[in-house]
Design goal:
The structure holds three protein chains of three kinds.
Chain A (H helix, E strand, L loop, with lengths): L4 E10 L2 E11 L4 E5 L6 H8 L7 E6 L2 E3 L3 H7 L1 E4 L11 H5 L6 E2 L2 E2 L1 H14 L15 H14 L4 E5 L7 H16 L3 E5 L3 H7 L2 E6 L2 E7 L5 H9 L17 E10 L7 E6 L3 E6 L5 H8 L5 E8 L2 E3 L4 H6 L2 E4 L3 H5 L6 H6 L13 H15 L15 H14 L4 E5 L7 H18 L2 E5 L3 H7 L2 E6 L2 E7 L5 H9 L10
Parallel strand pairs in A: 3-10, 3-11, 6-9, 9-10, 15-20, 15-21, 18-19, 19-20
Antiparallel strand pairs in A: 1-2, 1-4, 4-5, 7-8, 11-12, 13-14, 13-16, 16-17, 21-22
Chain B lengths: L1 H27 L6 H26 L7 H19 L3 H27 L5 H20 L3 E3 L12 E2 L2 E2 H19 L1 H11 L1 H6 L4 H27 L1 E3 L7 H11 L11 H20 L7 H17 L3
Antiparallel strand pairs in B: 1-4, 2-3
Chain C lengths: L4 H4 L3 H20 L2 E8 L4 H15 L7 E8 L2 H14 L3 E4 L4 H13 L3 E5 L10 E4 L2 H15 L4 E7 L4 H14 L5 E8 L4 H14 L5 E4 L2 H14 L6 E3 L5 H8 L8 E2 L5 H14 L14 E3 L4 E2 L15
Parallel strand pairs in C: 1-2, 1-3, 3-4, 4-5, 5-11, 6-7, 6-8, 8-9
Antiparallel strand pairs in C: 10-12
The chains are: A alpha/beta, B mainly alpha, C alpha/beta.
């Protein structure tokens, strides 16, 4: 079949560094493509060129056989629409207002709201969705927001839909729903291009796989024959060791004990658990199950109504993050961009941000700070041009390593990691797991890991606690540590058709 | 190499703008370049400049302080009144100065607590402060003037030290001190963190409220310094006009110097030169005898141009 | 009016008495409680501070008079003043004494008050209409003119003059124009600089400091106002040039008047633009409501437009213009 969108020999530079080298790629109508690659491989860059947001320095773009020079408006008019990872919605506007933003329906001077609402409902029905067009986008869940973006694209008669990491904030259930919609669109003849780090999902939904590595296309072809491992190896360019290191053997000492903890806002209810020295304890659950809130309560960010916390056997009162830090308990936030790093500051300053007392007598000793950072740079393989580089310009994986370095530098022994590998590429993911093991073996640390990534939870943790509606409802370990068990406890619903006792 | 030059240009662009303005004025009116005039510019700029330096801390931490103009009048009036009551002489004058600083710190503390623990936006609290302070000053003078009767108090505002006017020396010394605090201490680091990303600062176990409150105290102390110098020189404070408009000039100086209105960005170096640019512009208007009704336009255009030129580096 | 049954038989005499009683009571009711609203700008510089003080002073003179009640309001900008006047009208004032913050925006509400029958006295800044009862103001023209004439005569028609003016406004423009008219016949008298001091001591100080650096020879300085004159004095003293220069301020601030009284070498003269015109205006409002007239006039009623004369204050008569208790 003739390609609808093609790139020929496309190259682009950023600050005199070539980022895409002679990329040749074709996309056919009514097909689903998965685009994978490490961070910095050029996936987002290529997509932005294809959707008109960037101009290549060399090469051409062809649409329906004709050479085109694109800009965002022209691309949209042709039907090439990009849904970025951070989504393009205006939180303070309603759903239908977002969908028709820029293309509002009017009657003379006035907006014909009723028409727009009706049209939105109509579009939703086409994809079997039922989101109320009049609610504010800020009230929607991440999954619903993703759906609204798709509806928006459909309303503009999309022909090629490019989605950048659409599933990173979705639970497994919601991902399935998304896939259904993708299949739906394929049937309508739309080309869907899917960038994702989740190789498992890519294999589920895509028909054809495109692998980018260091700015070049290294593979385009059928996905059916490839295993996840093979795909990962194509991305990295070498044979990967096993993703997850061998699980550590936890000690018997109980380093953290929580009894009947409830938060003042009522989200977390009577949570109780224990963490052993050298253990990696997982917390699984659906979005909104209260895991993040529990972690925040433990480090004093969220107000606690009742319950007791014991650190290293001693009862403690943690009212704010300073108390937690002093006691050696630290938290890696779920929202890296807004709560983990300070984007506009230099990288090394982020590393030392929680330990400034160590680096100052009267005045700051910047040399010592930089040296400290450099040692983490080496140990954690943090890819930076210089310690003075603004941390916001680093890739997700490297940013996360910087946040980890910040926490390690405080000398803490108990780490609460919340979605530690979200938005992090395969290689960095692997490195983070190794770092965790290093910390357990060399520093005697212990971990609680909140994660919605089933393979990660299963592959990384010694045991897993499942939360549902603010309560810890189950503990799973050993042989029971599998997807079926975890999902069952998280949703409270046994898989349809499995009527076993 | 090109990138290095561009960064250098960006950092020092503000100095170039200043020099450019001065050269231009010097060509049109040679009297501008008289050493006496340059000294005058520093002198006249000092009062707003010292306040601008204080406000830089507040703004980098993500806040704002609209009350500084009225506070200037209030603190100046307080200084004059206490020094009048305590009488002539070095001792009483020093005491009145100390008391003024104490009051300023208290007011700053109050503003800080209202804004942080009270969770009221800084714009509102300091706007309220602006109205309250001005009203207090007017009330106690019935709309008139506070006159200083202490010879000692009104003696140092005009003093020259090593050939330089005292306000200028204080301004420069203050700037150097502020630079060291902001750029080279732990506290300064926290100020930037809090302003750049408050959430991340909270999660990084930084005492955000404390840091913010301290910046308001710094602002108060800065205003006190300026108030003492100004009221000493003029030997009076007008309850109605002293300090009016200073808040806008101070904020403008900081913004011209690269301080971001949303927090996280700014330098004392930039504010220092931003204040000087404003001072040069004011001086230019008089030196070039710019027509009265055009002055606002000329001033506004130059300020916009100064900021635009600096944005070129981005 | 229903007359009770019993009284109907009382006869004509009682009825007359009753009617007379009612009439008297009504008259007394009218005479009681004249409500007078006074709306002026808030103090933003010395002179306006003085006006507020004088308004309070004038009102205090009536504190033992049960027939009059005053409401004094100050505004920081035109829209605030409009709202205040509306509130006063709603309160049912009989007279309005107002120094409009700005002429155009305040005109409609003043005209409305006048048409409602409120006795309107416009002070200082006018309105763009003739519909008012009394207009009283200082003489901006003579204020500038006399200053110019004085300087011209003192310098014998030759010299460098610096003009430091107030907040750019129509009032200020009028004065400056008058000043220039006065010195026009003297071609050797040059205005070498004309800069705004915004009626502020500090601002005038800065401007004068800069001008002293620019001009080695300055023979006279006219500031439109005494607050600015203070600033100029400080600048002159600081530069060591406080001799051989003619200084003229204005509006008779009490400290400057004292200096004239004591024979200051540089300041020998001042011109009035009295902030206590508001006190006169308040009195006129009361007189207007009571239907009184001015002494020496054959005509009844209050004259509609009163321009207060700009009086020249010299060492000889300074003590008549010295009000040490005033704030200005």
């Amino acid at each position: 079949m003739r390609a609808i969108l093609s790139a020929r020999n496309v190259c682009i530079d950023f600050s005199n560094v070539r980022v895409l080298h002679n990329v040749d790629v074709d996309f056919e109508p009514a097909k689903v493509y998965g685009v994978v690659g490490e961070n910095g491989a050029g996936k987002s860059t290529l997509m932005r060129i294809l959707s008109g947001f960037l101009q290549p320095v060399e090469g051409e773009i062809y649409f329906e056989g004709n050479k085109v020079v694109l800009n965002p408006l022209r691309a949209k008019a042709l039907g090439i629409i990009l849904i970025p990872q951070e989504l393009n919605l205006v939180e303070s506007l309603r759903v239908y207002e977002n969908i028709f933003l820029g293309d509002e329906m009017t009657r003379g001077f006035f907006l014909s709201k009723r028409q727009m609402i009706e049209e939105t409902k109509h579009l939703m029905a086409q994809l079997d969705l039922s989101i109320d067009p009049t609610v504010y986008v800020s009230q929607l869940s991440p999954a619903q927001k993703q759906m609204v973006e798709i509806i928006k694209a459909i309303s503009k008669r999309v022909k090629v839909l490019i989605m950048d990491e659409p599933t990173s904030s979705l639970t497994d259930e919601e991902v399935l729903k998304l896939f259904q919609i993708v299949r739906n669109m394929k049937q309508k003849g739309i080309t869907v291009i899917f960038i994702s780090h989740r190789l498992k999902e890519v294999r589920q939904i895509a028909e054809e796989l495109i692998v980018l590595r260091d700015g070049r296309k290294v593979y385009q072809g059928e996905i059916r024959g490839l295993s996840e491992k093979q795909i990962a190896e194509l991305m990295v360019g070498r044979k990967l060791d096993e993703m997850f290191p061998e699980k550590p053997v936890p000690g018997t000492e109980i380093v953290l004990q929580v009894r009947d903890l409830s938060t003042a806002d009522g989200i977390v209810k009577e949570a109780s658990f224990e963490l052993h020295r050298g253990e990696i304890l997982g917390f699984y659950g659906l979005v909104g199950s209260g895991r993040t809130e529990l972690m925040e309560a433990l480090v004093g960010i969220r107000k606690v109504k009742a319950g007791e916390v014991y650190l290293f056997g001693k009862k403690v009162q943690i009212e704010n993050p300073q108390d937690a830090k002093k006691l050696g308990l630290v938290y890696l936030p779920e929202d890296r961009k807004n709560a983990g790093i300070i984007q506009i500051l230099e990288t090394f300053k982020n590393t030392t941000m929680m330990s400034l007392e160590k680096f100052s007598k009267l005045l700051m000793r910047v040399r010592k700070e930089v040296d400290t950072f450099k040692s983490y740079e080496k140990k954690f393989d943090i890819k930076v041009r210089s310690p003075w580089q603004t941390v916001g310009t680093l890739s997700g994986g490297n940013q996360q390593k910087v946040v980890i370095s910040k926490l390690v530098e405080t000398g803490a022994k108990i780490f609460l990691f919340d979605e530690p590998t979200r938005g992090v590429d395969v290689n960095a993911r692997h490195q983070i797991y190794q770092i965790m093991h290093q910390m357990i073996n060399e520093l005697g640390c212990s971990f609680v890991v909140v994660s919605s990534d089933l393979p990660e939870v299963i592959g990384l943790c010694n045991r897993v606690l499942i939360m549902r509606n603010g309560r810890i409802v189950a503990e799973v370990k050993g042989e029971d540590l599998n997807e079926k068990e975890l999902i069952y406890h998280a949703t409270g619903v046994k898989e349809v058709g499995a009527y076993q006792v | 190499m090109r990138i290095k030059f561009r960064n250098f240009l960006g950092k020092y662009m503000i100095v170039l703008v200043l020099i450019g303005l001065m050269i231009f004025s010097g060509i049109v009116t040679p009297a501008f370049l008289k050493p006496r005039n340059i000294l005058n510019i520093f002198w006249q700029t000092s009062y707003v400049g010292i306040i601008a330096i204080g406000i830089t801390f507040v703004m980098i931490a993500g806040g704002i302080d609209l009350s500084v103009g009225s506070m200037l009048a209030l603190l100046g009036a307080f200084a004059i009144t206490t020094s009048n009551k305590l009488g002539n002489g070095v001792g009483p004058t020093l005491v009145s100065i100390l008391l003024t600083y104490a009051l300023a710190s208290l007011l700053g503390l109050g503003m800080g607590i209202l804004t942080t623990k009270g969770k009221i936006p800084a714009f509102i609290t300091t706007l309220g402060g602006m109205a309250i302070y001005r009203s207090l000053v007017l009330n106690f003078a019935n709309g008139g003037v506070y006159m200083s009767f202490s010879r000692t108090f009104s003696s140092f505002g005009m003093k020259f030290v090593a050939g330089l006017p005292l306000p200028m020396i204080v301004f420069i010394a203050y700037a150097v001190l502020a630079y060291i605090v902001l750029d080279k201490t732990r506290f300064g680091r926290y100020v930037y963190a809090v302003g750049a990303n408050e959430t991340a600062a909270v999660y990084s176990a930084i005492k955000v409220d404390t840091i913010r409150t301290i910046t308001y105290i710094i602002s108060g102390v800065s205003v006190a310094t300026s108030a003492i110098l100004l009221s000493s020189m003029m030997a009076s404070v007008s309850s109605s006009s002293t300090g009016s408009g200073f808040e806008l000039d101070a904020i403008a100086a900081a913004v011209i110097g690269g301080t971001s209105l949303s927090g996280g960005k700014g330098t004392i170096f930039g504010t220092f030169f931003g204040a000087l640019i404003l001072g040069v512009v004011n001086n230019m208007l008089v030196m070039l005898n710019v027509a009265v009704y055009l002055q606002g336009m000329v001033k506004g255009l130059i300020i916009i141009a100064a900021v635009l030129l600096q944005n070129l580096r981005k | 009016m229903i007359v009770p049954l019993g009284q109907r038989e009382a006869g004509f005499g009682m009825k007359k008495l009753f009617v007379a009683l009612v009439l008297v009571l009504t008259l007394v009711g009218f005479a009681a409680k004249c409500k007078i609203g006074v709306a002026i700008p808030a103090a933003d510089h010395g002179w306006t501070g003085g006006m507020v003080w004088w308004a309070q002073y004038a009102i205090k003179q009536y504190q033992n008079d049960p027939d009059v009640e005053f409401y004094l309001v100050t505004a920081r900008e035109p829209s605030e003043q409009i709202a205040q006047v509306q509130a006063l009208l709603a309160r049912g004032i009989n007279a309005l004494v107002i120094n409009p913050y700005e002429s155009a925006p305040l005109t409609p509400i003043c005209v409305q008050a006048f048409r409602q029958g409120v006795y309107t006295v416009i002070v200082d800044r006018g309105i763009n209409s003739e519909e008012y009862n009394v207009y009283i103001a200082g003489d901006n023209y003579m204020y500038g003119y006399l200053a110019g004439k004085y300087i011209a005569e003192k310098l014998k028609g030759k010299g460098n003059v610096v003009v430091i003016r107030g907040i750019p406004s129509t009032i200020d423009d009028e004065r400056v124009k008058a000043f220039k008219d006065a010195i026009a016949p003297y071609p050797d008298l040059k205005i070498i600089a004309e800069q705004p001091g915004y009626w502020s001591r500090e601002k005038a100080f800065e401007v004068m400091q800069t001008l002293l650096t620019k001009f080695p020879q300055i023979d006279a300085v006219w500031t439109g106002d005494d607050d600015m004159l203070h600033g100029v004095l400080i600048a002159l003293r600081q530069a060591g040039r406080d001799k051989n220069i003619v200084l003229v301020g204005g509006a008779c601030e009490k400290n400057i008047v004292k200096m004239i009284m004591d024979g200051h070498p540089l300041i020998e003269v001042n011109f009035t633009y009295p902030p206590n015109m508001i006190a006169t205006a308040i009195n006129l409002a009361v007189m207007g409501l009571k239907g009184q007239s001015l002494n020496g006039f054959y005509q009844k009623g209050i004259p509609r437009k009163i321009i207060l004369s700009t009086e020249t204050v010299t060492r000889q008569n300074a003590k008549d213009y010295y009000f040490p208790d005033s704030v200005f």
